[in-house]
Amino acid sequence: MFTILPIQGYIDQIDGFFCDGIHAGLKPNGNNDLGFIYTNEPCNVAAIFTENRFQAAPLKHFLSHKEEFKTNFVLINSKNANALTGKKGVEDINTLFSSLDFKEKLVNPLMSSTGVIGNRLPLEKLIAGANSFDLSAKSGENLSKAIMTTDAYPKTSLYEVKLEDGKSFKIGAVAKGAGMINPNLATMLCFICTDAAVPYSDMKEALNINKETTFNAISVDGDTSTNDTVMVLANGKSKAYDKDAFIEALRVVMHEMAMLMVADGEGAKKVAAFEVRNAATKEDAIKAAKALSNSLLVKTALFGEDPNFGRIASTIGASQIACDDEKLVISYNDIVVFDKGEICFDKETEEKASKVLKQNSYKIICDIGLGNCSFVAYGCDLGYKYVEINADYRS
């Protein structure tokens, strides 16, 4: 048995982790744009990345290391993605690290970037900024702000996991993500830190187990970026570990970060869980749920608070899964609007369903009626603010 308890603070409260964020001159508004995570002792590190075929330079740099390498430093910048920069992009990362005054303290340093695609890194600003770091700093708040792009707010979490043997470990995360989010990771960076004594193989396994129901189950706009990264760093300082407890704690952290991203979907006001039940196969359940979370017609209906079940049914049919309108049941929370070929959408029912859509979060349930497989995907509404933000993104 184990207990997972939320606690106050940032990742700097985890034993052995240091972090900070500063303004290095990348953001013209003076906000933080460069941060770091540092540990005295090298960490086991595992990561999953975007499925976009054009992976950014920081991802290529990470993947150039042999599997099961360790690191003690991650440098993170916003405003510039260092993507589609070719070999020069990776060379710039190596040049940056070789120019740091504290390079002798670093073990396999890593970099992560987010921002505009198609520009080389401003090395002079980054080198000067990084050389001003105090590696003993503990400011998770500054770091959380440094990695933001179009985010309306920082995204952090922290938990303590108490084990049956009396030992405990902490796990927490800092993340960014609000737009270009699609169910194949998302335009997001997420750094999860823990003092659990977790082996690399278990960490990688836990990441892959949990990604499908968290970061791979969310959608803001159906786009997948070049830099998407989920990275787990484990320094083992607590000397505590239980595999089942770690897998569940990691799921809790990943799910919380994913939900924060959907809720912050560049102007989003609504978060919807699209639960597909009783599909013929697991693949069908996933396909239909993700189609609903991705549909622009569905998203704009959510924005307009319009419980148009026709858009829901049409999207399910267009997803090409096995389905039959005489077996399909559609509900907004517990309000049934379509029941196995029967339209329940009278004036009273529509008013009840409309009240559901006026809430900040709710569930749209689609019972396919052909099997026993289920999946939940998460999405948000899409409105005028999204267009405004992305029309001005480079400015």
Secondary structure layout plus pairing:
Blueprint: E1 2-6, E2 17-22, E3 34-49, H1 57-63, E4 70-77, H2 86-98, E5 110-113, H3 123-130, H4 140-146, E6 155-163, E7 168-181, E8 186-194, H5 200-211, E9 218-219, E10 229-234, H6 243-263, E11 271-279, H7 282-294, H8 296-303, H9 309-318, E12 329-332, E13 335-339, E14 342-343, H10 347-357, E15 361-367, E16 373-380, H11 384-391
Parallel strand pairs: 4-5, 8-10, 9-16, 11-15
Antiparallel strand pairs: 1-6, 2-3, 3-4, 3-10, 6-7, 7-8, 11-16, 12-13, 12-15, 13-14
Pathway: Amino-acid biosynthesis; L-arginine biosynthesis; N(2)-acetyl-L-ornithine from L-glutamate: step 1/4; Amino-acid biosynthesis; L-arginine biosynthesis; L-ornithine and N-acetyl-L-glutamate from L-glutamate and N(2)-acetyl-L-ornithine (cyclic): step 1/1
Subunit structure: Heterotetramer of two alpha and two beta chains.
Subcellular location: Cytoplasm
| Poorly predicted spans | 179-183
CATH superfamily of the largest domain: L-amino peptidase D-ALA esterase/amidase
Overall spatial form: globular
Structural class: alpha+beta
- Main sheet? 9 strands, mixed
Overall pLDDT confidence: 90
Gross CATH architecture of the largest domain: 4-Layer Sandwich
> How big is the Rg?
22 Å
* CATH top-level class of the largest domain: Alpha Beta
Helix/strand order? EEEHEHEHHEEEHEEHEHHHEEEHEEH
